Amino acid sequence: MSEKYTHPSEEELLQLADGELSSHRAAAVQSHLASCWECRARQQQIEATIADFVRAHHETLDPLLPPGAGPRALLRARLAESAAASMREGNWFSSWQRVFTARTLAYASAAFLIALLATLGFYRALKPHPNARVHLEPDHRLTPGAARVVSASEVCHVSYSDDARLVPAAVQHQVLQEYGVDSAQSPGYELDYLISPQLGGTDDIRNVWPEPESATGWNVRAKDALEGRLHQLVCDGKINLATAQQDLATDWISAYKRYFHTDKPLAPL
Amino acid sequence: MNPDASSQALEISLSAARPRTKPATSELEEQVIALFDELRARLLRYVLGFGLSTADGEEIVQEAFLALFQHLRLGRSRHNLRGWLFRVVHNLSLKRLAKNGRCAEVPGLDGGIAESRHDPRPNPEEHATSRQRRERLLAVVQALPAQDQQCLRLRAEGLRYREIADVLGMSLGSISASLTRSLARLGRADGR
Question: What is the pTM of this model?
């Protein structure tokens, strides 16, 4: 072989193996390799290094890969969700697009926003509203729940009275007035703490509400049972105090169903 | 798997499915799931190579496929979707690394994972030497500049030079130079 064919570089040997060399150059290198044992040996070394690296790569990372079935199912669900969401958006937009130009749409949204704010303001001004119906859950605007700064160990070692009738008379009166409950009607209700004092609740007006006596059994007794259970879970370290307070303040009936694994209030013991 | 064959298969399946109008959503979902089945492990390994956790990896891969779904729904280019996915995953990984504050340890070097891995080979001497070799190789990989590492790992996942160049924003010439440099170092470490 003529000396004008110099040995291909390592880079060219790699490019040849990777199929990244131009066909013209590839042919020349191939023909050189056919004649040159030295370069064939170099090419094999490159291949062996690649094989070693690929093995190490897989041996290190493959054991870390979790099975694909779960992620696949999750992706499927998320794709469906995403498709449904943009479908709703698309339909809403295209049907309104025909009616409104962008400018009128902007005016309409502004007007809607103003109306919404005005309504909200009006609604707030209405309170206390005399015809309010008292529900099994308190009106969260009036009774969001209030708790003092207290640690779990403190609530577990000190006992507090849960009798909301001990709250100051002025607060009692104000609560009933806010909820539009006549004092004449009051026997149908019992004042109760939303977050019970044994779980850090205070006798602040935001934490007291008239709880109705209800034929469904969702009443003060059921709520007391839940409070007892939550207190025990907190003191056993199964849930934290903030969770217990949150459960009582947001939706105590759902919390009851969750913690007692039941759809109906259990019969009093 | 032969990367050439799989990339050809990918091109063919995508061009065959390429419609004149936007395809039905359910059809797109199936295409995305098919790509997920094919590429999840490769993408996940690529993320793990950054030293990110498996949980981060799964999240990033999910996000990339959701982005792909949106991309296809909007009727955007179907050219080289594999490279597109690796690019998205690469960018999300860098973002996640920045958010996590620092590069986590890449698995394999600290010995934790390597030690805990069950090796079915019975001969303990052989076991020890192969593990030592693997750790030596990984140490060399880790000592490479970040871009060289990424280049090598993308190539190991079956990407062609053109695709790697797209993912990393490098020229074709610098890809082959980077790979040659890395393999030479690995070869020396391996006593080849």
Answer: 0.54
Task: Render each residue's pLDDT in chain A as its tens digit; 269 residues.
Answer: 444 568 999 999 999 999 999 999 999 999 999 999 999 999 999 999 999 999 999 999 999 998 888 899 999 988 988 888 777 666 555 555 555 455 555 666 666 677 666 666 555 544 444 444 456 788 888 888 888 877 888 888 777 776 666 777 888 888 888 888 776 556 677 888 889 888 888 888 888 888 877 667 888 888 888 998 898 888 888 888 888 988 898 888 889 888 888 888 877 54
- Is ipTM beyond 0.85? no
- Amino acid at residue number A221: R
Interface contact flag, B176 A79, Cβ < 8 Å: no
**Rounded to an integer, what distance in angstroms lies between the CA atom of residue B83 and that of residue B64?**
12
Q: Which of residues 71-110 of B touch A (CB under 8 A)?
A: 73, 107-108
For residue B47, the chain A residues in CB contact (below 8 A) are none
Q: Is B46 on the interface with A (CB under 8 A)?
A: no
Sign (positive/negative) of CA torsion A14, A16, A19, A25?
Answer: positive
Place of tokens 């981060």: B56
A54 to chain B, closest Cα gap in Å: 6
Q: In the 8-state DSSP scheme, what is residue A147?
A: B
Domain ranges of chain B: 26-103, 124-192
Q: To which residue do tokens 């130079």 refer?
A: B177
For B52, the token pair is: 């990110």
Return phi, psi of residue A211, to 5°: -90, 125
**CATH assignment, B124-192:** 1.10.10.10
Those residues with Cβ within 8 angstroms of residue A24's Cβ, 6 or more apart along the chain or in another chain: none
The angle subtended at Cα B123 by Cα B117 and Cα B127, nearest 5°, is 40
CATH T-level fold of B26-103: Rna Polymerase Sigma Factor; Chain: A (1.10.1740)
